[in-house]
Amino acid sequence: MSGDDAEDVAGGVFTRFFTRHYDEVRRYALRRLGPDAADDVASETFSVAWRRFDRVPRDEPLPWLYGVARNIVRARFREMRRHGAMSTPFPRDDHREPGSPDPTGAVAERDSALRALSRLGETDRELIMLLAWEGLEVREAARVLGCTTATARVRLYRARRRIERLLAPPPPDGVPRPAASPRPPARTALKENQ
Tell me, what's the pLDDT at 172? Predict the structure, then answer.
């Protein structure tokens, strides 16, 4: 096989890879930056994939692609913040795909959930979004975030607890919220066990 033939074969493999995963990567960017930037982020992601195609895991390429897209989105967030163009981690407008229904009753619930999500730290927020919006498993999301599965599980547990607290209805006037049980300092716990 000549060099040109090998290049054609590689190009065909990449074209099939691109066709299979482009829409998922675009939706990832759409949910984070909106329609104005989604195509650009997807294009940049596949440009990186083309240059590093030998490093893309063939068995599960989506977490790798999301990791690249995440880095591109983060760079765009930094740029927008630098120019004062964005104050929240989510675009203001509703950026659903055309034809997607959005029942009126779900709007308030969605708004509350997005507000709670925006109050999480960047990594915890991204973990929740990878699981809920992108449909990844915890181990796949851990790969996107560059951490172990165990670390992702701990972050997920803590993020869920925080979201539950943020979404809980406020207590009636005059009724204090239950305080979290205090944990003894590490030294005290060690001395008690000796």
Answer: 72
